[in-house]
Design a protein that fits this description.
Layout: E1 2-9, H1 13-24, E2 33-40, H2 47-57, E3 62-66, H3 72-82, E4 87-92, E5 95-97, H4 101-106, E6 116-123, E7 154-156, E8 165-168, H5 170-175, H6 194-204, E9 209-219, H7 228-246, E10 254-255, E11 258-259, H8 260-275, H9 279-311
Helix pairs in contact: 1-2, 7-9, 8-9
Length: 318
C-alpha cells in the first residue's frame, strides 16, 4: 500500500517550508510506503529550491513536479497523473499537520470500504475570532478554511475541504479529476469549489466518505483574511460557484431569470441589516445580503448566457 500526499503551491515558499517540515514528522506504520509530491504551479520565488532541500534532507520522501498551466485544478490533476500510489491525500502550502494526520486520515481507506475521507481543519494556535463575527452560525469560519464537525468519527455526508482530504486512486479513474473551471487561477472571477464539486460528484454517485476528527491540520489565518471585506467577497463568490456547480434552483416565478424568492430574501435581509443592533448581528445580516446578491448576479449571468446561445444560428447541415 502506497500513499502520496499531493501539495499544490504557488509563490509561498516560506509558508511551504513550514508545511513540509510538519509533514516530514509524520508517524506512519512502517508497512505503509508514503511520499509527498509538491506540484509547483508556476511559482516565481524559491519554491523549487525549498522542495529540493527537503528532498536532500529526507531521501525518497519528497518529490518536485512543475505544472506551468496556471490554476490549482490543473496542478491537482497533474499531481494525480504523476503520483504512483493507491491513496492520494491532499494538503495545502499554508497549513501545518499533526504528526498522526496522515495515518489517521488514510487508514480507513486501505480496505476499500470507504472511497474518501476528511479531517478537521482548525485555525493555528493563538487565533481569536473577530468580535463582529457570529461564530455560532454554521460555517461561520468557512472563509478561513475551518472544517470541524466535532470529535465524533463517522460517515461524512458532505464534501471535505481540500486541504485535509484523501481519496482512493480508482475514484479519479472512475469519475475524472477536478474541474478546471473552478478553483484558484489568475484572472478568474470565481475561485472556489474545485474540492467540494469533486466530493459532491462522488457522493451523488453513491460513494461513501469517512470523517476522522483525529486527522488534524492547522490552517494559517493571515491578517488580510480577518477583514469584513474578505468575508463578504468570499461568500459572494462562493454562492456563485455553488450555482455554477448545481444550476439555478427551480422556482414557480422568475424575474429576468432570477427566482423571485431570491429577490424577496434580498429585500428581507437588507431590511434586517438596516434595523439590527450589535456588530455581530449586523454583519451576519450583511453577509446574507451579499450572498443573495451573488446568487442574483449568477442567475442573471446564466440567463444572459442562455439567451445568447439561443440567438446563435444553427450550424448548416450538409
Amino acid at each position: 500500500m502506497k500513499i502520496t500526499v499531493i501539495l499544490c503551491t504557488y509563490n509561498r515558499c516560506q509558508r511551504l517550508a513550514k508545511a513540509l517540515q510538519s509533514v516530514a514528522q509524520s508517524r506512519v506504520p512502517e508497512s505503509i510506503e508514503w511520499n509527498v509530491l509538491v506540484v509547483d504551479n508556476n511559482s516565481k520565488d524559491q519554491t523549487r529550491q525549498v522542495v529540493e532541500d527537503f528532498a536532500q534532507r529526507y531521501p525518497g520522501r519528497f518529490a518536485y513536479f512543475f505544472e506551468g498551466h496556471p490554476g490549482k485544478s490543473y496542478a491537482l490533476n497533474s499531481g494525480i497523473s504523476e503520483a504512483k500510489a493507491d491513496i492520494f491525500a491532499f494538503m495545502d502550502d499554508d497549513v501545518e499537520v499533526d504528526p498522526h494526520w496522515l495515518d489517521n486520515l488514510t487508514k480507513v481507506l486501505v480496505d476499500g470500504a470507504w472511497s474518501g475521507a476528511g479531517g478537521r481543519i482548525l485555525p493555528e494556535a493563538g487565533f481569536t475570532p473577530p468580535a463582529w463575527l457570529n461564530v455560532n452560525e454554521r460555517y461561520a469560519l468557512a472563509p478561513l478554511a475551518v472544517f470541524d464537525h466535532g470529535s465524533e468519527a463517522g460517515q461524512l455526508k458532505e464534501a471535505p475541504f481540500g486541504t485535509n482530504m484523501a481519496y482512493r486512486k480508482e475514484v479519479f479513474a472512475k469519475y475524472g479529476g477536478f474541474r478546471t473551471d473552478f478553483g484558484p487561477q489568475p484572472g478568474a472571477s470565481i475561485q472556489h469549489n474545485e474540492d467540494s464539486e469533486f466530493g459532491s460528484r462522488l457522493l451523488a454517485r453513491g460513494e461513501r466518505f469517512w470523517y476522522q476528527p483525529s486527522a488534524v491540520v492547522y490552517h494559517c489565518v493571515s491578517t488580510e483574511r480577518l477583514q469584513k471585506a474578505y468575508f463578504l467577497k468570499w461568500w459572494y463568490d462562493k454562492v456563485r460557484a455553488d450555482m455554477r456547480q448545481d444550476g439555478v434552483p427551480a422556482a414557480s416565478l422568475y424575474v429576468a431569470g432570477v427566482p423571485s424568492y431570491f429577490l424577496r430574501r434580498f429585500a428581507l435581509w437588507s431590511l434586517r441589516w438596516l434595523c439590527s443592533f450589535g456588530s455581530a448581528q449586523r454583519f451576519s445580516c450583511k453577509l446574507h445580503v451579499w450572498r443573495n446578491l451573488g446568487m442574483i448576479r449568477e442567475c442573471r449571468r446564466i440567463a444572459l448566457s442562455s439567451a445568447k446561445d439561443a440567438r446563435q444560428p444553427a450550424p448548416l447541415s450538409h
